[in-house]
Specification:
Elements: E1 5-8, H1 14-22, E2 26-29, E3 33-37, E4 48-51, H2 54-61, E5 71-75, H3 77-85, E6 92-94, H4 97-105, E7 112-118, H5 124-132, E8 135-146, E9 157-160, H6 163-170, E10 179-183, H7 185-189, E11 198-201, H8 206-221
Parallel strand pairs: 1-2, 1-9, 4-5, 4-7, 5-6, 7-8, 9-10, 10-11
Antiparallel strand pairs: 3-8
Length: 223
């Protein structure tokens, strides 16, 4: 009997790949999206800087912008950890963009905001800032490019990390016979087909996503 196949739409660290294989599963991976930093104009001083992805943080850290001199808001523990490793402490960390917007609503009066983001950002934040008539700028610091790849296999589980990754994968592949595991509700909403099961992590991290996938598949193997 063939081992159940787990497909990751992002290349994982060696330790996570080994964990999957050691638990008795076949494993396949590819990068459904490619990230390319782009040049950008360093903005003037602002009251708050907003990060909604690690890719934006990585791009800004390579620039001359002084993050230590502003108040930083971000989404996700991994973003918080990346900032901290580079000497920057986020004053607020939200689980998702909806939660972050709720935080911003409480501090939006007479303050300025800069959102460092990618070219395929969702409009949730910008629409809210327009509604609040806030002093707000969005600066694109990286581009997301879809990597269209056909997978000649039917995975038991597919791991998704972003709406762009879902779009890229489903443009070439069906998912109806697979269980889908998603980092966050926004990523899950990008799936238009009905998978076997749709599992969404409330506290998203790649490590937790892999652990949840292994746990789920083992449970259903013996059900």
């Amino acid at each position: 009997m063939d081992k159940p196949l787990i497909l990751s739409t992002k290349k994982l660290d060696v330790a996570l790949r080994e964990r999957i294989v050691q638990n008795g599963f076949a494993y396949m991976e590819y990068d459904a999206i490619d990230i390319k930093p782009v040049s950008f104009e360093v903005p003037a001083t602002t009251d708050y800087v907003i990060f909604s992805s690690k890719n934006a943080i990585k791009s800004v850290l390579k620039s001359t912008y002084a993050l230590a001199k502003t108040q930083v808001l971000c989404i996700g523990e991994q973003s918080e950890q990346l900032l901290f490793k580079n000497g920057v402490k986020a004053i607020r960390v939200a689980k998702n963009m909806v939660e972050l917007v709720a935080l911003i609503e409480k501090i939006s009066v007479n303050t300025s905001f800069v959102h460092f983001c990618g070219n395929r950002k969702l409009p949730i934040l910008s629409k809210k800032m327009v509604a609040l008539k806030a002093d707000f700028k969005e600066i694109v610091v990286y581009e997301t490019r879809l990597n269209f790849t056909r997978i000649n296999a039917t995975p038991e589980a597919i791991l998704f990390y972003s709406p762009s990754g879902v779009e890229s994968h489903t443009s070439m592949n069906k998912i109806a016979n697979s269980n889908c595991f998603c980092i966050g509700k926004t990523t899950a909403k990008a799936i238009s087909e009905q998978p076997k099961e749709l599992i969404i992590l409330e506290n998203p991290s790649i490590k937790a996503l892999v652990a949840k996938t292994i746990q789920f598949l083992k449970k259903h193997q013996h059900a």
